[in-house]
Amino acid sequence: MYKGKKVVVVLPAYNAALTLEKTYAEIPFDLVDEVILCDDASRDNTSALAKEIGIEHIIVHEDNKGYGGNQKSLYNKALELGGDIVIMLHPDYQYTPKLIPAMVNIIGDELYPVVLGSRILGKGALQGGMPVYKYIANRALTLTQNLLINYKLSEYHTGYRAFSRDVLERINFNANSDDFVFDNEMLSQIIYAGFHIAEVTCPTKYFEEASSINLARSTKYGLGVLRVSFSHFLQRLGLARFEMYQSPK
Predict the structure, then answer these.
(1) Which residue from 106, 132, 201, 246 puts its CA 20 to 30 A from 118's CA?
(2) CATH number, domain with residue 123
(3) What single-letter DSSP state applies at residue 9?
(4) DSSP secondary-structure letter at 77?
């Protein structure tokens, strides 16, 4: 708990057995009340290991639903459990759990309802091993998004995010894609709904066991990001209406 607010960490997992235990061990349980893991049809023993190390809430997808589908299951479960502050932490140890207290403080003290762990703030992205082509694509896409969405973030592509309950209840995240572009759709919805977003500097870690998408999937993701940005632009100007920006039913 933090000032009477229930803190829930959600772990979107796919073949995360090599890094899950290390990630879980660094979660600050003096603040975190519940941990939920969603195993998206992993081919390793992710869900068995999650049970072994003491994760109480484990969701197992029999068929792979994708990164976005994984998050939908997690956020719906977090709301069901009464989470007031919900942090998405990748169990591949690419993002450090040691930033959770800072993210909880920002939301719990009602400074901002959304916090992103940014790999781009500062100069650590390339030093931390981010591939050069991904860094360049990140910067180009972020510039385009800031212009079309009329907001200013250092990056829209981090997977380290924290949300207040109010945010999750007021955006229609269940209408989003089940693929990687889910993350961008969610930020677009949040900004369109008028919520403000904080960013904290997050160390970058790229290593063999950390999850990553290949060039083909990255290209598909980039095109999806542009689609979301132009949709937001048209919605913002009243030139079109998209279901994802409607209030959840």
Answers:
(1) 246
(2) 3.90.550.10
(3) E
(4) H
Chain segment 201-247, per-residue pLDDT in tens: 998 776 555 556 677 888 899 999 999 999 999 999 999 999 999 98
What's the structural domain count of the chain? Answer: 1
What is d(CA 226, CA 120) in angstroms, rounded to the nearest whole number? 20
In angstroms, the CA 126 to CA 123 distance is 7
**Neighbour tally for 22: CB within 10 Å:** 13
What is the SS3 assignment for 18?
coil
What type of residue sits at position 77?
K
Tell me how far the alpha carbon of residue 4 is from its chain's centroid.
Answer: 24
Q: In this structure, are residues 37 and 24 in contact, taking their beta carbons and an 8 Å threshold?
A: no
Q: Alpha-carbon distance 220 to 32, whole Å?
A: 35
- What is the distance, to the nearest Å, from the Cα of residue 193 to the centroid of all Cα atoms in its chain? 18
